[in-house]
Amino acid sequence: MSSIYRRTKLATEMTQRLLQPGVLDEGLRSGLFLSGLRRIGKTTFLINDLIPALEEAGAVVIYVDLWSDVQVSPSDLVRRAIRSTLTALQAPASTVFKKLKGITAAEIAAYGFKFSFALEKLGDKDGTTLAKALTEVVDQAATDLVLIVDEVQHALATDDGTRVMLALKAARDAINSRPDTPGHFLFIGTGSHRALIGELVTRRNQAFAGATSVPYPVLNGDFVEYVFQRLAQEAVQKLPSIEAAKKAFDFLGNRPEELMKAIRLLRSQLPYGVDPDVHLAVIVATLRTAAADAELLRLERLGGLANAVFERIAGSNDGARGLFSSDAAADYSRMVGHEVRVDEIQPVVNELLAANLIMRRAHGVYVVTDPFVQDTWLEEKRLTQVP
User: Fold this and answer.
1) By C-alpha distance, which of 100, 129, 101 is closest to 117?
2) Residue 382, class by beta-carbon neighbours within 10 Å (0-12 exposed, 13-18 middle, 19+ buried)?
3) Are the CB atoms for 309 and 348 separated by under 8 Å?
4) Which of 126, 161, 275, 357 pairs as cysteine with 74 (C-beta 3.0–4.6 A)?
5) Which residues contact 296 (CB under 8 A, 6 or more apart)?
6) How many domains does the chain have?
7) Residues 308, 345: one domain?
8) Helices 256-269, 276-301: crossing angle, 10 deg rounding
9) Cβ neighbours, 10 Å, residue 375
10) Is residue 70 very low, low, confident or very high in pLDDT (cuts 50, 70, 90)?
11) What angle do CA 260, 262, 268 make, to 5 degrees?
């Protein structure tokens, strides 16, 4: 059995919606952004499931991870990835062509793209624009071109990154607006910073404002069953019931690494005569609290006003409004013990957004980014309240 859990059905469904969209899915051509917390399997799914499915359906796929080299600017990483793929497209017998529909073996052996521009100047100030280059790719391949940018929020880190996003939007508009285009340009961005992903599609000054943003479809009980099948093959002992493991997986935020850690701890720490299901619940609660406490420690370091703003947000069930009002400033003043001016609030909210502790759910509405952090904060608040 493979060590990688494959999500073939999900990849096939997403490919269908992207490359052959129905009326309700045509908006995906404006851009698709998938957001989810860290370590829930986003990159694994992209590389092992979605990209192969897209290529099998005939699309040319370019993938770039903006977290792969933090010393290189996001714009340079994007251009490198595009240049690498276009270089492959120029080569006769390129493996890229084996995945394009309608090309025979003889054509593969002799065919290569002929570009009208120099690859080394692609996207540079005095070189060919990304819009022109990607349009040529679509026209020569006569198929869809999909650019996947992992951890896309890092494009906001520099002005250069913002400019490359605008260049990609220009490519989208140039290609997709043609009535007889032989293929479309599809942009997929993924990220673990849910607050910034939200900014990318809701802020009017962002290149892909108005694009579709959805939560990443997390793993479910099928993944737990797959893990137990592998454990059974290895004859691993001292395991909980599969139903208890599924509950634990949900409680840990559907993070595969955290589930594996919990099972390892269970096997090494299970007291004699204790029900594995009961002990697993204790381990999982400890792991979840520890992860949330690490996030809350970052909150503490931001200072008293940040904690006051966070309290207002975390205490709301459906999102906090009016964070910048005079009434809110009065509440913050009472909580921190000194007067808080309205103009002091925005910089603190920006710090909370940058730390990925809160996110903007809608205009003027803020929520805690990680539900675990909110639950832990509320529990600690309850325990410290004087009866």
Assistant:
1) 129
2) exposed
3) yes
4) 161
5) 373, 376, 377, 380
6) 3
7) yes
8) 130
9) 15
10) confident
11) 105
The whole-number average pLDDT for the span 258-270 is 94
- CATH number of the domain within which 82 lies: 3.40.50.300
Q: How far out from the chain centre does Cα 305 lie?
A: 29
Among 13-22, 125-134, 182-191, 243-252, where is mean pLDDT lowest? 125-134
60, 141 contact by CB (below 8 A): yes
Residues 70 and 85 in one domain: yes
pLDDT higher than 90, residue 36: no
* Confidence grade of residue 68 (pLDDT, cut at 50, 70, 90): confident
Domain residue limits at 171 = 8-215
Long-range contacts of residues 258-263, Cβ cutoff 8 Å, at least 24 apart: 258/39, 258/287, 258/291, 259/224, 259/227, 260/227, 261/287, 262/287, 263/227, 263/231, 263/239
- Banded pLDDT at 208 (limits 50, 70, 90): very high
Contact 249, 224 (CB under 8 A): yes
What does the pLDDT read at residue 11? Answer: 97
Closest listed residue to residue 17, CA positions, set 214, 192, 195: 214
pLDDT tens per residue across span 331-349: 999 999 999 999 999 999 9
Q: Which amino acid is at 177?
A: S
2, part of any domain: no
Distance, CA of 169 to CA of 175 (rounded, Å): 10
Give the count of beta carbons closer than 10 Å to the beta carbon of residue 73. 19
In angstroms, how far apart are the furthest CA atoms of the chain? 81
Here the tokens at position 191 are 């990220």
Q: Is residue 3 part of a domain?
A: no
Cα 65 to Cα 74: distance, rounded to the nearest angstrom: 9
In this predicted structure, what is the pLDDT of residue 332?
94
The answer to whether 68 touches 226, Cβ cutoff 8 Å, is no
Q: Are 289 and 376 in contact (CB under 8 A)?
A: yes
- Reduced to 3 states (helix: H, G, I; strand: E, B; else coil), residue 264 is helix
Task: Give the residue from 226, 210, 125 showing the smallest Cα distance to 172.
Answer: 210
Q: Tell me how many degrees the CA angle 69-75-80 measures, rounded to the nearest 5.
A: 70
